[in-house]
Amino acid sequence: MNKLGNKILELKNVSKIYGELHALSNIDLTVNAGDWLSIMGPSGSGKTTMINIIGCMDTPSEGSVVLGGVDISRESAASLTKIRRDKIGLIFQQFHLISYLTAVENVMVAQYYHSMPDEEEAMEALKKVGLASRAKHLPAQLSGGEQQRVCIARALINSPEILLGDEPTGNLDEENEGIVVDTFRRLHEEGATIIVVTHDPEVGDVAQRKIVLDHGKIVDDIDQSATFGRALKLKTRQ
Amino acid sequence: MKMVASSLIRRASRLIIAVLAIAIGATILSGLVTIYYDIPRQLGREFRSYGANLIILPTGDSKITREQLRRARDVIGAERVVGMAPYRYQTVKINEQPYIIAGTELPEAEKNSPFWYVEGKWGAKGKPESVMVGKQIAETLNIGIGDAFTVQGVRYGQRAVASAQLLSAKENLARDIASQNFSRKLSVCGIVTTGGAEEGFIFADIDMLDELVGDSFRGDVVECSVVADAAQLAELSEMLKDELGDVQPRAVRRLTQSQDIVLGKLQALVLLVTAVVLIITMISVYTTMMAMVAERRHEIALKKALGAENGLVMGELLGEGVLLGLIGGALGVGLGFEFAQQVSLNVFGRAIHFQWLLVPVTIAVFIAITVLASILPVRKVMDIHPAIVLRGE
């Protein structure tokens, strides 16, 4: 099911409760290094809550979340910020690029908060997503797909342990959706661990594994290894 | 640095508005402070047009000597002296009627008394026979500009001899122009109107008067117009007393007190306006920064999502505030000086001095104001939750 076989993320009995509402209920999930997991489910099923907890932007009400050997469920906000900086690469539906910075500078922002900005490294990351020629363009001068690829380059720049995508293709047309999925495929081949929340069944189907949430519970956990290559080809052909 | 600089340049249009808000405050503030510090000097000069504010009188029967006059000028300081006119009063007769001739340094008296209305012109050093007469004397003697009249009197140290009833007028005149007496024909170059006692005097060059009475300078009074407030005048009076010995320096209270009252009120007004401007600027910077934080909510949330700590993001925003304060303050110093210069030229008719100290002080004050006004808006960073703000909905 996975290339390396070692656990990188483990959720045990995780719940998130807002008053009467149980956004997540007793979730158990293990993700191995190098896995490509998609999380699907209807609106309000708890997908975003789950990815926020995994991405250290929220904490569970109950249970434990072990990320890279560290239980992040009881860490302080400052510690979570540090873990997020060092271990997580975030990809957003709305890209969230800084409008007054060029593509390469947007990538360097992540370097700045992690260690030291290095333009050469940032250019390498952009090359990896096929955007080296657009490095000096402002976000407004880039297409949606290009902006999302800048976002992916920014997520990759600090070599995170996990790439988290929250509806990464939600704002893209089919052509750009294909380009982004293809980028994920290449990163996965290079050994990246990818977790993607999506509404789109086609994007969900191209992952190696898919879990389906409903009312805060995992209602389906599908190993797609058998159809993984085929589904991917279908998607990237579009 | 390159990234920060280019980001500032690309956001220039927004930053210019913030800088302008600060620069306008800094302009008014530095301009008012410049005026505040220059008012005493400007107003002091202005008040000098109301006449002498320091009178030096001899004590007892003594008179003021040339040496005392020179030392008095040294004690007061040449740069503060607007005018310093010594007076010697001598009784003379014109057509057998007694009048008083005031010998003085006419150019200095002119500086002391810009409020005198002089028909004709002031007497000059090179024309000792040309004198000014008070309006009252001119009317009594029925003389006008260019007319001549003869003054007679007793030389210094001599006794006047009373007219003898048994002698004819011609014989009495002959007695009067004998060696103990003097007689000199003078011409009128100006008629003085002041509405005061000056209209009953003849004003002549002091050297001519000394020569006429056959004596060296003996001053009855020295009228000084000095750029100083009441406290400084009191201090000067003490110093003159100590330095000159047998003299009684007196500040003209009516003038110095009025000057201090007007000055105090004006400075209080400037201080009040300055405080109001300061508060308005702070509110303006506060709202500008609040708008900036609100406008950049997504950017701040993104930075936090990328791993920036609250302190770091707050530091960045405060750093921008410092930069805005620096640029706005620097602009304000220049514009403020121009503002103060225009006010000074239009109100006082004089140019002002540029206060170099105002450059670092204004910049420091506006950096402090910007930072202070930014604290609350910048603290909002702590409330920005990346998961909520960046939610892709």
Q: Mind explaining what this structure looks like?
A:
The complex is a heterodimer of chains A (238) and B (393). With 238 residues, chain A is α/β, with parallel strands linked by helices. Helices cover 37% and strands 27% of the residues of chain A. Chain A has a single domain (32-57, 81-237), classed as Rossmann fold, CATH 3.40.50. Chain A has helices at 47-54, 77-87, 103-114, 119-128, 144-156, 174-189, 201-205, 225-237; strands spanning 7-18, 21-32, 36-40, 62-67, 70-71, 88-92, 162-166, 194-197, 209-214, 217-223. In chain A, strand 4 (62-67) and strand 5 form a beta hairpin. Chain A starts with 6 loop residues before the first strand and ends with a helix. The model of chain B has no long low-confidence stretch (mean pLDDT 85). The longest helix of chain B is centred in the last third of the chain and has 43 residues, at 253-295. Chain B folds into two domains: 2-46 and 260-389, no CATH class; 53-251, no CATH class. Chain B is built from 13 helices and ten strands. Chain B is α+β, with helices and mostly antiparallel strands. In chain B, a hairpin with a 2-residue loop joins strand 2 (81-94) and strand 3. The A-B interface holds A 48, 52, 55, 57-58, 78, 81-82, 84-86, 90, 92-94, 96, 98, 100-102, 105, 108-110, 112-114, 117, 138, 154, 166-167, 170-171 and B 3, 6-7, 10-11, 298-299, 301-309, 312, 385-387, 390-392.
